Amino acid sequence: MGKAIKITVKKAPEGYDLGASKFFGTPTVPLAWDGDFCDDEIFFCQIRLSDIAAADKENRLSHSGYLYVFLHTEDGKYHLGADVRYYEGEPELAIEEFNAAVEEYERYTEAYLMEFSEADEDEICTRLFGVPSGWSSEEEPPKLLMQYDPLDNDMGFLDTLDGFVYLFFGKDERDFSQITLQEEYT
């Protein structure tokens, strides 16, 4: 076991900690980011990096601060683009109903809390790191930040996609602005 971090989700109860690691719901961001998002952008997830420390044996990410994934939806429900950001401190601003104004994504306002555990690098699940499941190319895949399996949970997000959504690192794994999103169909 190892080399990957499995992400399991459960629907957040009322009154949950808004700073928790989660998919959807209310993002908590730095005040400096207020008004810094595009009209077609949705909140996908935030990871409180201290939550992954026990499972991140290789220290692939910092274990302080937050990692955020926002998605651009400019051409409808498919062909999403990634906006991945890191913040070193504690966020101060909760943006309620972040996704409510984006057509086709209005229903993704409920939070799903993340739990992290060690996983095999090729496990078919939603996870951080490892090798992309179902990678069909003959070429070696880029380095994987996150693999999202729409059928691995009950969130309903992209559940018509028979495959995976990958977030790949760029050349510099510390430069989150270089992360790319790719959909892979099985």
Q: What would you note in describing this structure?
A:
The chain has a single domain, classed as Hypothetical protein YwqG fold (Roll). Helices cover 0% and strands 34% of the residues. The protein is mostly beta strands. It contains no helices and 12 strands. The protein has strands at 4-11, 22-23, 28-29, 41-48, 66-72, 81-87, 93-94, 112-119, 127-129, 144-148, 163-168, 180-185. The mean pLDDT is 92.
Q: Report the sheet with the most strands, covering strand number, pairing sense and barrel closure.
A: 10 strands, antiparallel
Query: Structural class given helices, strands, pairing?
Result: mainly beta
Mean pLDDT: 92
Poorly predicted ranges (pLDDT <50, ≥5 residues)? none
Quick overview:
This protein is mainly beta and 186 residues long.
Secondary-structure blueprint of this entry?
Layout: E1 4-11, E2 22-23, E3 28-29, E4 41-48, E5 66-72, E6 81-87, E7 93-94, E8 112-119, E9 127-129, E10 144-148, E11 163-168, E12 180-185
Antiparallel strand pairs: 1-8, 1-9, 2-4, 2-8, 3-7, 4-5, 5-6, 9-10, 10-11, 11-12
